[in-house]
């Protein structure tokens, strides 16, 4: 059995241009390397600034098995700190969010730190006089993540010093965040309500791949969305369409519909489906909303914003957004066969409340532990995870619409049912998993 940490060739051989070896989904050593390399050297979503509006507000998050704190500073800026006391290593806070006031206080020995991580006080500090504490990491306060970027309220961090600059890493793909934020007449988003968390018994990459997989909806969701369509088909033509039907039925559109949607891929594993249209394109208009956007942005931009209805945008590896309904899902890998997904809902500042109601309804029906459609995917993920342990074929096919020159053509657009987005993700995976400097990237 290969030991991938010590065998660069075996690691590289896991990814071929049109197929991947099953170990990328089931091997513990591969998962450990992902946390150390891929998740440390790429830009990972931490949280949104609207979750920490006031000085001393914090949000805790575990990223690549590192406990982190996103903290609002007195000057209005934000910092990302390790949630680890510099003394014995205890986590400073256990709550998912809160307000720490002007300092953090360790619950074990009461060492305290300013909200920027600088050391503030130590009980009986005289006991450290003449020691090496001040010259050691323990005497310098909380570890701050140096590479942090805020883009229209979305906070990203790169844990490692080595890696691509923020703009280089995301490039043109940031247009999906722009589109979602510009749907607000004020150009701003804010998190509304709490988080819907649900556990997936599968590798994190299965979930991320599935977001741009358009060959499964009409099959996997036949029993859920298909039933909704059958019930609706029996209604009179002039019957008012419930919001749930409007959101459910497109999931069982035919292959031609999803193929026509189109998919666009970018360097570093990012992509989105819905280049031309999506399952969100035909939602009922909200009275007065287009007029609000026209007044805020002008007619041309307002029409462009509303005319863009991307399905899922993947910000590889940690975030997916649905701009047309202002919702995101955050990927938290727990192990090679277990992943936590967080579903968050946004309010468009200054927009009609009906849009928030639509988003909440969608998140509850589709992206939550009580989802009707989502459980179809959960079952499929688990079936794949179990099936990959079977003897015989050790490879996973990514052959659909493969072109030998596609890597050189990125960014590019393809038909919606292509598996190009998955191949694109694994090209990025292979690059960031390789030891040493990341090939084809500039350090920042």
Q: Count the helices. How many?
A: 16
Distance between the termini: 37 Å
Low-confidence stretches: none
Query: By CATH's scheme, which homologous superfamily of the largest domain applies?
Result: Naphthalene 1,2-dioxygenase Alpha Subunit, Chain A, domain 1
Instruction: Please outline the major beta sheet.
Output: 9 strands, antiparallel
Range of strand content: 15-25%
CATH topology of the largest domain: Naphthalene 1,2-dioxygenase Alpha Subunit, Chain A, domain 1
CA-based gyration radius = 23 Å
CATH architecture of the largest domain: Alpha-Beta Complex
Q: What coarse outline follows from CA principal-axis ratios?
A: globular
What is the CATH top level name of the largest domain? Alpha Beta
Specify the helix fraction band.
Answer: 25-40%
Describe this structure in words.
There is one protein chain. The protein is of the alpha+beta class and 444 residues long. The protein folds into two domains: 106 residues, Rieske [2Fe-2S] iron-sulphur domain (Rieske Iron-sulfur Protein, 3-layer Sandwich), CATH 2.102.10; 248 residues, Alpha-Beta Complex (Naphthalene 1,2-dioxygenase Alpha Subunit, Chain A, domain 1), CATH 3.90.380. Helices cover 30% and strands 22% of the residues. The protein has 16 helices and 22 strands. Strands 13, 14, 15, 16, 17, 18, 19, 20 and 22 form a nine-stranded antiparallel β-sheet that branches. A hairpin with a 6-residue loop joins strand 8 and strand 9. Helix 11 packs across helix 12. The longest helix is centred in the N-terminal third of the chain and has 14 residues. The radius of gyration is 23 Å and the shape is globular.
